[in-house]
Write a structure and sequence with these properties.
The chain is of the alpha/beta class. It is 57% helix and 10% strand. It is built from 14 helices and 6 strands.
Length: 315
């Protein structure tokens, strides 16, 4: 969305005062998103592709410079004064716990409708060209309740059906959620009645469990480790006693409701050997991490699997 061309339409959408204006801007973004997903699906050649719907708080996309404000005003057919007023109205004191994730989808369902359409139209086009099934996993972020998830699952499902009817294909997809809030972990059994997979967003789950900002923890993190308050940096290695306990609860309760529930983690912990070993013990199916950590993650996954097999053999 931060591409110089796309960002203008993105800002136009955010700063629109009504649904009609947002839909006009989203129509401009749809082709870009569809092409992005087509490239992903083509490269992955039938392997599962998990796509998280829009998650960041809207303030991250807002213009700050005069020239940026003018571009948005021109695109939206309004003046800079109106744009400035809209930017001010969208200000949040704590945006990381404000209007972001699934809350965006509930307040502005047209955003998730556009992204879902881009995903499914791209999947259909790639299937027709390659003849291979595209496996899509649509992930709804920052869910805290079954009710939130169900509303947005229905939004995604309606668009999937529309695309299937239009192209004459039966698409292969799952709809799941990120578990990155303590309440979601505790209510995992209910959420799994609707969700087909969980991806533990351990970066945000660590922040919300500790009440700790990753960006602001540098001033006291080292002294906490030196004094033995933290055994490790909790943003590098999963805190097994707190965050890990929530993962365990969510895994157990989720699979009690849905035995075939797919579980994984995403974030920096996905490249940490100690965290990977812990996730393997919990029965998670996969880890996801940044590209440069993939070799370490693969090795750690293999070691964790071998260690568990050795433990079983010696038991």
């Amino acid at each position: 969305f931060f591409d110089p061309v796309r960002i203008v339409s993105m800002r136009e959408m955010i700063l629109s005062s009504g649904e009609a204006g947002r839909r006009v801007a989203l129509e401009k973004l749809l082709p870009y998103q569809r092409e992005d997903f087509k490239k992903l699906f083509t490269i992955m050649r039938g392997l599962p592709v998990t796509i998280r719907l829009l998650d960041p708080p809207l303030h991250e996309f807002l213009p700050t410079k005069d020239e940026e404000l003018e571009k948005v005003a021109q695109a939206a057919g309004t003046d800079v004064i109106e744009v400035r007023a809209r930017v001010a109205a969208l200000h949040e004191t704590n945006p990381m716990l404000g209007l972001r994730g699934c809350r965006l989808g509930i307040m502005y369902p047209e955003i998730y409708e556009m992204q879902s359409r881009a995903i499914f139209e791209a999947a259909a086009e790639v299937e027709k060209v390659t003849g291979e099934s595209v496996v899509t996993e649509v992930m709804i972020p920052l869910v805290a309740s079954k009710e939130e998830f169900k509303i947005l699952k229905d939004v995604v499902g309606v668009i999937a059906k529309e695309v299937e009817d239009a192209v004459g294909l039966s698409l292969n997809y799952l709809i799941g959620t990120m578990v990155e809030l303590p309440r979601a972990a505790l209510r995992a059994g209910e959420i799994a009645e609707e969700a087909e997979f969980f991806s533990f967003g351990t970066n945000d789950l660590t922040q919300t469990t500790f009440g700790l900002s990753r960006d602001d923890s540098g001033t006291f993190l080292d002294p906490y480790i030196q004094k033995g308050i933290f055994r490790n940096d909790p943003f590098v290695t999963i805190d097994q006693d707190g965050v890990g306990e929530l993962l365990k609860i969510a895994a157990e309760r989720g699979r009690a409701s849905r035995t075939d529930l797919k579980l994984g983690i995403c974030g920096e912990h996905g490249g940490d050997p100690e965290s990977i070993k812990f996730c393997k013990m919990l029965g998670l199916n996969y880890v996801s991490c940044s590209p440069y950590r993939v070799p370490i993650a693969r090795l750690a996954c293999a070691q964790a699997s071998l260690n568990i097999k050795e433990d079983i053999a010696s038991a």
